[in-house]
Amino acid sequence: MKFLNVFFLLIALNFGVQKSYGQPIRFQASSVSFTDKKEDGSWNEWSDFAPANVLITLNAKKDLITINSSEVQSFKIKAYGEITDNAEVNIVPFECVNNNSSKCNIIIITKKKEDNRVQFYITYNDVKYVYNIYAK
Asked: Mapping DSSP to helix (H, G, I), strand (E, B) and coil, where does residue 2 land?
């Protein structure tokens, strides 16, 4: 528990310090779920989580997030959002463009009231993905 608190403090500090000094942060995904938009603009229910053994790398020095799945997904970080940290959650947001030039938002959420469960969300206009992750 103490390790997780220190880890997330280091993540938050990493974005406040010059990016040139940052080391890549690696996460291991254990499962993934998705949802898509209905015709009326609302979102469908999330799918059941499926096993996902993929490595996710956040490299602030290169402004790059990589998901090493069967097809490697790269996300160029265009903007770093403001970190939200309160008693319930820690949210680290990014505005990105993927390797197909599609805009998306990525957030890393630590749910403090759920034993510090960490999730990695990718949101496009019409589909969302969420990975359950842990530090590698």
From this structure: helix
